[in-house]
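Chain and conformation:
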Amino acid sequence: YENKKNNLTVNQLKSQSPYKPNLDDLFSLYNFVIKNKRTTILEFGSGWSTLIFTIALNELKNRYSKKIKTLRRNNPFELFVVDNEKKFLNITKNRIKKYFNGKCPIKINYLYSEVNMTSFNGRIATEYLNLPKCSPDFIYLDAPDQFNIKKSLNGFNLDHLDLVPMSCDILKIEHFLNPQTIIIIDGRRSNAQFIKKNFQLNWKYKYL
């Protein structure tokens, strides 16, 4: 049923209901986590991907819970989710509870945070006011929604159908990230270029 929902048109973009799941994308995310043996995931935005990450981390937990004790990982097999939409956070929570019959097998840390207009290196961007305290080895960027950004900067805000998301949150924590951290940006090509050009460390980049 969920997979039969209609996609938004190019000039619609605003949605009051969850997006339909893209099964190919979700399976790709699952494989990224499993094959690279990720331990701690930071997800910007919540949705079907949150369920997939939960399933993947649970599988890794069952396989490697004993071996990980030798690593410096203090949030093993935990998922951190930050979102600026309380409605979609609640939908995600309920979906996961339903899937696991009310007993989620891993620890999920949900964080609601507003998003403001800001600047990074003199360039206009957006930032979450609160970030979870964690050291992820996998980051998934699929938020925030550009139509729920608070305030303006120099009279400029992203609440316009011709504009695109431009998050700078990953740039702010770059030097805290461990080597071999994987970052996946879903769509958001302009935002990906913005992040790539403002990184200070030598990251490998691949466009899929």
